[in-house]
Records
---
Amino acid sequence: MTIPPRLTALSGRSLLVAACALACGTSLAAEPLSGTLEKIRRANLISIGHRETSVPFSYVDASGKVVGFSQDLCDRVIAAVKARTGKPDLQVRFIPVTSQNRTPLVQNGTVDLECGVTTNLAARHAQVAFSSTFFVATTRLLTRTSSGIRDFPDLAGKTVVTNQGTTSERLLRKMNEEKKMNMQIISAKDYGEGRLTLESGRAAAYMMDDVLLAGVRQLAAKPADWTIVGTPQSSEAYGFMLRKDDPQFKALVDGVLVQLMKRGEINALYDKWFMKPVPPKGLAFDFPMSDVIKARYAAPNDAPLE
């Protein structure tokens, strides 16, 4: 699905200048533009990578609009970019990405900022950079309540679906090999395909990040028929992905996120997407903020959890 470019609503140039002053800092605002910011200024265009079905972080609603927790944070970054580049009418192009193509699209300049659900891994630092962490998840399993599956050892001899190119896929394949579990592993291209694989009965369980599995469960025909189980296999620090060696753009992105965290504004956005009813079904996730996330918001940083 191709999402047409749209413009982020503004409340006037003064608001943008204030946003940049807060997010960028006086010294950064005085620097000549370089890297991604200069690219954006010259083209009068910022390209945002988004997911299509990653409820409630980044997905496309019934009207074709990109929405979610990640997108709300991204919109704040876009406002700061408009101020920093002096482009109040900056165009915003939304580009759908997958676990397979998100990294090369950032690297080759197609996407300026990937605002989805990408885990900050040390292994990825050779290719891209990450913003400060805005969410921490754990990897678990989604299965039917009647399946009898309660933890990872119960997967022996069963078919399991996960998403291609993710930490979960790497962990699942490693587990299967090292513990000789004889699992059949299906690699889905995205959460929509993973959900269909699970609901159709082609897989007995779906391994991914717990909060994303909660989103998959919400989209099921009968959410009550599904449960999230299993000992967490890893902790996943989500960050926005951007190009390497671009300290000016990273400082702007981090500045926006840190301000939202330090001022407590991110808490209201968290409640909006994780504690209150959200589209498309108007169901609440009831996913309280963990102590790990609270600690990250109190002391923002971009360190991976490995």
---
Amino acid sequence: MPLMNIGDYIEFFDPDVIGAWLDWDAVTSSDCQVSETCSRSREYLAGLYTMWYATPDDTDGDWRGERDRPLRVGEARRTSRSWPQGRASGVTRLRDAFVRENRPVHLVLPGYSLGNGRVLLLDGTHRAVAAHLSGLEVRVMVFSIEGPLDAAVLPDLAHYSVSPAGSAGEVDA
């Protein structure tokens, strides 16, 4: 039995706080399920997709960039030289705080399922990237909406291909 349903998800991860342009009405009206993943694996954390993008020349990109591609947590630093100041200082501040604590980093994160075990983070990317960059052990719990892979529901989903069977394929490059 799932730990939460979509109503619980919305209550727990406040839509007014989550920065993703998710169509919450579409998610609730389509009776989406919520899955949970718990992991102590830094590799799992590194493999989570973010809403941060890289241009073809590895500078900070944008979801509207047709040739830009989503970054995973483990590769987010590749665009760090061109991050907006707020992102750079936020990640550095969090990473430094995690390192000072010198304990496993605990993260509870909202996600959107891309199929095949892949997840797109809807919020918490600064914390996730900072935890990964800290080099410390992690304890990660991700609650993922199992919803339609439709850019009308979430514009970022346009960057993920969909196979004829309707499951998310690899990220378009």
---
Amino acid sequence: MTQDCLNSPSTTDVSKRLPKGIHVTGADDKSDPGIEGTPWGYLFIHNKTAQAFENEMKDYNEKNPNSAVPCFIHRTLRYRQKNEKGGVKKELQPSISGLVFLQGKTKVLQAFLKNYYPQYHLVKDRCKGVPASIRDKVMQPFMTVLKDNPERVTFLRDPFEKFAKDHVKLRVLTGIFAGCEGYIVRIDRDRQLVFDFGGYAVAIRGVHKEDFEVVEK
């Protein structure tokens, strides 16, 4: 299941050198950034009301196609017993943290929330002090992984900047996370890609086998 944080930040190993076993092609500041899509913001809603909010957003978007606001609910795997005879059933349910993502520029989302949901506000990037804005090219693969393999995603307690120390910043060149930048960090004995996600540090498993290049400052 998706984890909200690490139980022990001390499980993270750091190294001054490039991570072992990672295919790095070298520095290249000419990588094609591609066409940027519309960014995303997010808010916290109690998990018991997240489903109702999602249904309301679907209804709004159907009635207002020209001003639709795409919505994505962060869900985690929950396990429950099928019946008295045993067996376990897996279900995707809104996470306890109640993360809800909305696509749109910050001012547009703020105006939308003010008009329709004044009780909610965009979460601020805790490093920048302004409403978080997540690039679409980061959000798209993130949503794909959360839908198909939510257990690969871990929200870390430590700020993203902490991982910059003694790590080399890399850019992913292959796979669905191509173009994303972050650090390969060993967490719980597994090499994971840690990247900035709206002010939070998020770790993704299963990315270390992709090709990387060093990010030029």
---
Amino acid sequence: MDDKRFFSRVGFSYFMMVVLTVAVQFLLSLLLSLIAPQAAGLPVTSWLLAMVPLYLVAIPVCAKMMQALPNMQLYRNEMRPGQWIRTLCICIFVMYVGNIIGNAVSALIAQGTGLDLSFELGELLSQGSPWFTLLFSVVLAPVMEELIFRKVLIDRTIVYGDKAAVVLSGLLFGVFHGNFHQFFYAFGLGCIFAYVYIRTGKLKYTISLHMAVNMLGGFLSSLLLQQLNYSAWDTSDPYAYIDMMFNHAGAVLGLVILEISMIIMGIAGLIFFAVSVKKLEWRSGEYERPFHEMAGAMFGNPGMILFLLSGVCLFVLDML
């Protein structure tokens, strides 16, 4: 199989993952509206509609399609606790930088188009039980996403060299998030997780890092925001705002401690990144090519073009 056919198979597999996720979500939503319309607005329904099609249908089909490509067993190495902590700090730093870039790009697009591209992640996560956030975002998402975007993908693309495998893993991971707000930090985190997997050959390290990032950025903030009853705040009334702050002092303090802790970790991550970036080890692959040839083979094929177009559709739908 030549390089373009190889990457076309990769692109088409992940394109089908996007299509199946959207299609099954639509069919389940339609079915639910017919048999149990009263359940359509429940937070647990939103979680199930988002996760069941992806985890039970789309990802298994994508993984099955990728089995047609030869895979390679990576060398296995241990990651020391200190290395794991430093990597987590780097993840927090990259998450902050990616979030800033994503918000800036979204603001520019909103200014140019007049669209409302606000992304209230905190309000979204604070809806419903935070234990659903724990189950889906902290447990299931890291396991399933690391399987499909790291192991399934990198075990097959590593023959083109570490750099190609890392970039492709990060790019597909970022595009699959489907919006500008999350794309940049998801791309950065995806590259970090990919590099860790390549160097260790073990998913337990990338899954645990992914879980920690989602725990800090999702579950803990979700739990505290729900205690604050965030969605009910009327910030146009300063007195009600102050009263709400005092009535939920514990949750406010928890959010402040969480944010300060993450800022400290982010600053430490910047230092660790600056120190370690020149020490990164990039191994060549059996089929590695010069950059322009590699880019042409990777993206100049029908399967990858379909995947990228599906990503564009997700981005556009998110903006509408």
